[in-house]
Design brief:
With 217 residues, the protein is of the alpha/beta class. The chain has one domain: P-loop containing nucleotide triphosphate hydrolases (Rossmann fold, 3-Layer(aba) Sandwich), CATH 3.40.50.300. 50% of the residues lie in helices and 14% in strands. The protein is built from nine helices and seven strands. The strands form two sheets. A five-stranded parallel sheet has the order 2-3-1-4-7, with helices on both faces. The longest helix is centred in the C-terminal third of the chain and has 17 residues. It starts with a strand and ends with a helix. The structure holds BIS(adenosine)-5'-pentaphosphate (AP5). BIS(adenosine)-5'-pentaphosphate binds next to α1, α2, α3, α6 and β6.
Amino acid sequence: MRIVLLGAPGAGKGTQCKNIVVQYGLLHLSSGDILRQERAAGTELGQKAQSYMDSGGLVPDEIIIEMMTKAIKDAPSAGFLLDGFPRTVNQTVELDKSLTDNEMTIDYVLNLQVDDDTVAKRITGRRSCPKCGAIYHIEHLKPTTEDICDNDGIKLAQRPDDSPEVVINRLKTYHQQTEPLVDYYRKNGTVYDFDADRSPDEVRDSIFEKLDALVKT
Ligand code: AP5
């Protein structure tokens, strides 16, 4: 199964990916997570990406396309779930070319729909574990002990691009450059929309229900 997960910043992509990959045995390939790992490791790629990420803009296509097509080639045969990639029409076209060269296609595109005010509140309240990547929210998804990861006892952190000012830019970038991909994929008949303005468990259940039905057909 090869899936693309689309949705605005804060729509819940990372939260739902963690559920989907466990349920269907897929590899989670998050462009944002890979970039943050490169930054933390101080690599040349991470340094190049830093200013774009911190301002809420997009990292140049040529960097991202090379990084993600390489990751996809190394994916296991069970399949993968793309989170945050593709994010521009150019990235989508290059992804399609690379998949075709390897006799693959995207089977399903899951589109998480939620309005800008809701996602802005979600993002500014997000906290995550620097060690295991677990995602929390100061109101909707609290850890058992305030500010401490349930999995490994590490102090939770706030992403540098989660400030209200940067979130405005990230949403603008999303509407201008990424939202058009929904129509691009709709032409292939592979898009499934989900109301993401519900609890994380309700969103998860609706995704599982749809994927289970699709797998059976
Ligand atoms: P990336 O890491 O991909 O960030 P994003 O797309 O902006 O998405 P987020 O991670 O902010 O949100 P999410 O949808 O995963 O939400 P989450 O589940 O965490 O990219 C970061 C940057 O890297 C980009 O700005 C760009 O610079 C660069 N980049 C990455 N990919 C690129 C590419 N392909 N091309 C160019 N540049 C690229 O949830 C958010 C919060 O809400 C959490 O606190 C969570 O607990 C809570 N929550 C989730 N679901 C619910 C719910 N149903 N109800 C209530 N709360 C919820």
